[in-house]
Specification:
Length: 262
């Protein structure tokens, strides 16, 4: 099947405009399971929009999105699957942080084919198609190969996933002293895509869902960076996993720190 990637990108941009123009009024915010975990009416609206419009673009594709909307498979199919986070950075959206994005990946089986991460506040569209490189607003980007010592290290964690939190903060403290500084943006997809663009030298988080990292994982690979789980094993697109992404050099350094080296 020939897929119109520019049409898909236009839809992601439209979804971003919906996010930009939405206001998170208190009555539109609802608690989800676990600590400090929320969904807003805008998350659901954007996911439904993407489902409807992307279905027309790739007939028969499955949808693995974060929210409970019509047609959501919450898993991969053997054929095409759109892996969607309608708003990555929902808490940021609720608090007016202007640091959230729409993340859309397209997989065939368990292999990513294309990905888009669009931050409408900064108007940054990052996209990649397998084998064609990673792009930021149409300009080719590379992860580069900075070491931890010469870079910014981003991380995140969520109240609803706080197992092994001490190990994460101990590692982040060590990284704070070893690197130029550490960052926590509150949108894993944006911070991961910034690894692809070379602004973040590495990113780590103990547990993420496929829709948080699917699109960004292809951006990172196409930009010459590395993305694995924290133990170095391959990331999973059909179930949650930990994430360690970075330049080749920084990834190896943090892998060794996390797994008992220095
Ligand atoms: C969350 C954000 C956050 C990360 C969490 C994610 P959401 O996604 O990416 O930065 O720390 O683990 O769940 O809930 O805003 O889509
Ligand atoms: Ca997310
Ligand atoms: Ca989300």
């Amino acid at each position: 099947m020939t897929i119109d990637y520019s049409a898909a990108e236009a839809l992601v941009r439209e979804a971003g405009a919906m996010l930009l123009n939405a206001s998170p009024a208190p009555e539109t915010i609802h608690a989800k399971g676990g600590e400090a975990n929320f969904v807003t009416d805008t998350d659901v609206k954007i996911q439904s929009f993407l489902f409807e419009r992307l279905s027309a673009l790739v007939p028969g594709a499955a949808f693995f999105g974060e929210e409970d909307t019509r047609g959501n498979t919450r898993g991969l199919s053997d054929g095409y699957t759109f892996i969607i986070d309608p708003i990555d950075g929902t808490t940021n959206f609720m608090f007016g942080y202007n640091f959230s994005c729409v993340s859309v990946g397209l997989a065939y089986g368990k292999r990513m084919l294309a990905g888009w991460v669009y931050n409408p506040y900064a108007r940054t569209m990052m996209h990649a198609v397998r084998g064609e490189g990673a792009y930021l607003n149409g300009r080719r980007v590379y992860a580069g190969n900075r070491s931890v010592e010469n870079g910014l290290i981003a991380f995140s964690c969520a109240r609803y996933n706080d197992q092994h939190i001490d190990k994460l903060f101990d590692t982040v403290k060590a990284l704070f002293y070893k690197s130029l500084s550490v960052r926590l943006g509150g949108s894993a997809a944006i911070d991961l895509s910034r690894v692809a663009a070379g602004s973040n030298t590495a990113y780590l988080e103990m547990l993420l869902q496929p829709y948080d990292y699917a699109a960004a994982s292809l951006l990172i690979e196409e930009a010459g960076g590395v993305i694995t789980q924290l133990d170095g094993s391959a990331i999973t697109l059909d179930r949650p996993c930990s994430i360690l992404a970075g330049t080749v050099q920084a990834h190896a350094q943090i892998l060794s720190m996390w797994n008992g080296g220095r």
